[in-house]
Structure formats: structure tokens, C-alpha cells
Specification:
Layout (H helix, E strand, L loop, with lengths): L7 H18 L21 E5 L2 E4 L4 E4 L14 H11 L10 H13 L5 E5 L2 H16 L3 E5 L16 H6 L9 H4 L2 E4 L4 H10 L4 E6 L15 H12 L2 E5 L11 H6 L5 E5 L9 E5 L1 H4 L18 H13 L2 H24 L5 E5 L2 E5 L8 H4 L4 H13 L2 E2 L8 E2 L6 H16 L1
Parallel strand pairs: 3-13, 5-6, 5-7, 7-8, 8-9
Antiparallel strand pairs: 1-2, 2-3, 4-10, 9-10, 11-12, 12-14
Helix pairs in contact: 2-11, 3-11, 7-8, 12-15, 14-15
């Protein structure tokens, strides 16, 4: 029986059965908390397929998608070049247990676009990449403290879950059970974009900070751009004290510019973490930076890190195909399409008399239900969450799927063209007016 021939009652029973089975198997019925739709209400989506800018649920209903696999689908879902690359790589086997040519090729592509990564190491996730970069920073400096910023999400490792943005903010959780107090005590949390607070922290903890880790564009409390001088100050303060600067570009890497946020804002970090786009939708992470620092990683040095599936051939192949497609014309197109979406949404809200603030950096965008775009995580949390939930549900009824949290970025892809932008803005006009 196909989706076209099933009755609505049959679809309802099938969805209910799938959700029941998922809830029996997975905590909350999901394998990542934000997928549960708790922040927006209603039943969580069960998606079966995607192509281009659209995804389809198990009933065959199609949605215009702005989740984008949470960032990696910058070319759109199921891009033919990526699919072909994965298929061809699979024919040669999956995990062979030794260095392969695809690892070398992808690493060279990354370093060519992001020269600060003089040496790098692949991992299987962004969380692993950040954990490893933090360990390296501590090993290199002999210090324990890490500075991060409120609302910044750097994966779910113990020491970085304090005030950690989208996932925790969505559920109003200040941290996480199971994190030892001693682990949390090694993290100093500051307001994002607060240059004075950063200076004070280095004065108060002089000689004790191993690294500052920052999303150069905050993207887990909505999208928040750095104020002029903020990233430059972090680099200057860190180096003056003998600490390192780590850019977490798991989201921004190869999305906001060909060389990531560090190229867009002209600030070179000591270490960088990557994920998402460099795997083209396959599981991946990477960390890297100055050659002298990376020389401390085993087997060259005393800082241990390993991964059975690191450099997995299918992830490497997908990443190569994705980066090969991202030329300057692609970034110009992304900027143009994203700017038109921003302008259309602003006009739709104004026409309906709705107060919203739209923040955008490149192809990252958020709509906050407040008068002005927030400049830090604390301000972001004052957005009207109930209004966003109503807007989300209204857009979903229009077959437009947004990230199910007011603190997640919308991801625009190269598959979003004139038709998709017009469709989204028209849906937004009706949703804002509802």
C-alpha cells in the first residue's frame, strides 16, 4: 500500500505505532532531545526522506525544510554529487582500520580553506572534536580552567554543559545531572560579546586559564554575531596570558564564508573544531590548529586521543563532494537567497503588526519574538517562547518545517531558490497574521 492509497485513518495508526515503538526504545522517543518538539508542542515529526530543500514524513507529506539536518545539508538533501561519492566509496569497503587517501584529500581541502589548521585530526562527532581540543589545550598549557560564554553549546562533555545553549535552554535546564561539581568548577562562564567581562576574567584567573572556547557566531541561542572587537579582544587577552583561543566552528565552518567565521571576521585562532558540513551529512568532526600544538597529540606527543571510526571513508567522500561544490558563486548565491528570506520575513511580520527581531549571518538566521536582536545568551532567553511555538505550529500547518526551538538557527541551503523563498514568505505572512 502506498502513501497515495492509504486512508487518513491508516496513516494515523501508522504514526501512532511508530511513535509508540520509538518511545519504548529511546528516552523521550528520540535520539537527540530537540527532536521531541517539547518546546513547540504537538507531535514530533517522523521523517522518512529528503531531497533538495524538502523533506517528507512517513505519510508522504512534504515540508519545505529549514532544519537542514541541523546544518550539514548546505547543498540540500540527497545532492547527487554527494550520493554518488558515498556510493563509490562504499564499493571499496567502509572502515579499513588504516589511513586512506580520502582522509588525506579532505584534510588538504580543509587546510587550503582554513590555513590556521596547519595540522588536524578527524573524529566521529563535533563533541569529540571539542573534547579533544580542550584536552590538548590543557596538555599544552599545564592549566585547567576553560573560559566559555553563556549560551554557547560545545557538545555534551561534562565541563562544557554549564549554560550551554539550545538544548538545555529549550528545556530550561541550567546544566545536567551527572556532571561532577569538580568538572563544572573548571569552566568559567562569561556573557557573550562582553569585552569587559573577558578582561576581568583574565585578571581574576591570571595564569590559570588554559583556553577560551567560543562560537565566533553564537548559533545555539539563536544567531548572534560578534560585536566589533570582541573576537580580537579574546585573542589578545588569551595570548597575553599564555592561554589558547579555540574557535568552535562546528556550525559556522564553511557555512558563513569559504574559510569559516575566522575568515569572515579576520581573526586566527590557535585551535579550531569542525563538524557538520565537512561530512556532507555523514557523522564527522575534526579539530586542528598550529602545528606545534598538534604535535602534542599521540602518537607524536603525550596528549592521547583516538577513534576507531575516525576518518571513515563514507564521511570523507561526502565531505570532499560537499566542499568541492562550495565555490565563491555558491556563497554569493547563499548570501543573496538568505538576504531575501530575511527581508521577506521582516516585511511579513511588519505587515501583520508582529514585533520580531531577525538576526542573520550568512545562511544562518533566526526569528526572535522580541523588539531587538539579542547580543548574548541572557537576552536571547527573554524572547517570547510561546509566540515562537505558535508561529512554529502555524508554519508547520503551511508545510514549512522550522527548527523546533526558538534557540536554534535556521539553515538555508543552495537548494532554496526563488520558489522556496516566495513560498516561505507567503506562509509566514499567513502565520504571523493567524
Amino acid at each position: 500500500m502506498t502513501a497515495a492509497t492509504r486512508s487518513p485513518q491508516a496513516d494515523l495508526r501508522r504514526r501512532a505505532d511508530l511513535r509508540r515503538r520509538a518511545e519504548d526504545l529511546f528516552p523521550g522517543g528520540v535520539n537527540s532531545p530537540v527532536r521531541a518538539f517539547r518546546a513547540v508542542g504537538g507531535e514530533p515529526a517522523i521523517l522518512a526522506s529528503g531531497s533538495g530543500a524538502r523533506v517528507r514524513d512517513v505519510d508522504g507529506r512534504e515540508y519545505l525544510d529549514y532544519i537542514g539536518g541541523w546544518g550539514p545539508a548546505i547543498l540540500g538533501h540527497g545532492h547527487p554529487a554527494v550520493v554518488d561519492a558515498i556510493r563509490n566509496a562504499a564499493l571499496d569497503g567502509f572502515a579499513l582500520g588504516a589511513t586512506g587517501p580520502l582522509e588525506i584529500e579532505l584534510a588538504e581541502l580543509i587546510r587550503a580553506r582554513m590555513p590556521s589548521m596547519e595540522r588536524l585530526r578527524f573524529t566521529s562527532s563535533g563533541t569529540e572534536a571539542v573534547m579533544s581540543a580542550i584536552r590538548l589545550a590543557r596538555g599544552a598549557t599545564g592549566r585547567d580552567l576553560i573560559v566559555k560564554f553563556g549560551g554557547g553549546y560545545h557538545g555534551h562533555s561534562d565541563g562544557l554543559l554549564t549554560d550551554a545553549g539550545s538544548g538545555l535552554a529549550t528545556y530550561g535546564i541550567p546544566g545536567s545531572a551527572g556532571v561532577p561539581a569538580a568538572a563544572a568548577a573548571t569552566t568559567v562562564v562569561l556573557p557573550y560579546n562582553d569585552r569587559a567581562a573577558a578582561r576581568f576574567a583574565f585578571e581574576a584567573h591570571a595564569g590559570r586559564i588554559a583556553a577560551v572556547i567560543v562560537e565566533p557566531v553564537a548559533a545555539n541561542v539563536g544567531v548572534i554575531a560578534p560585536v566589533p572587537g570582541f573576537l580580537e579582544d579574546l585573542r589578545e587577552l588569551a595570548h597575553a596570558d599564555g592561554a589558547l583561543l579555540i574557535f568552535d566552528e562546528v556550525i559556522t565552518g564553511f557555512r558563513v564564508a569559504p574559510g569559516g567565521a575566522q575568515a569572515r571576521f579576520g581573526v586566527r585562532p590557535d585551535l579550531t573544531t569542525l563538524g557538520k558540513i565537512i561530512g556532507g551529512g555523514m557523522p564527522i568532526g575534526a579539530y586542528g590548529g598550529r602545528a606545534d600544538l598538534m604535535a602534542l597529540i599521540a602518537p607524536s606527543g603525550p596528549v592521547y586521543q583516538a577513534g576507531t571510526l575516525s576518518g571513515h571513508a563514507l564521511s570523507m567522500a561526502a565531505g570532499i563532494a560537499t566542499l568541492d561544490a562550495l565555490d565563491m558563486d555558491a556563497y554569493d548565491t547563499l548570501e543573496d537567497v538568505s538576504a531575501r528570506l530575511e527581508a521577506g520575513l521582516a516585511d511579513a511580520a511588519a505587515s501583520a503588526g508582529r514585533t520580531v527581531a531577525i538576526a542573520r549571518v550568512g545562511s544562518l538566521l533566526t526569528v526572535s519574538f522580541r523588539e531587538r536582536a539579542p547580543i548574548n545568551g541572557e537576552e536571547a532567553l527573554t524572547s517570547d517562547r510561546d509566540a515562537f511555538a505558535r508561529f512554529f505550529r502555524a508554519m508547520l500547518a503551511e508545510n514549512v518545517l522550522l527548527p523546533p526551538s526558538p534557540f536554534e538557527a535556521w539553515f538555508v541551503s543552495l537548494a532554496h531558490g526563488d520558489i522556496e523563498i516566495e513560498e516561505t514568505v507567503a506562509a509566514a505572512r499567513r502565520a504571523f497574521a493567524a
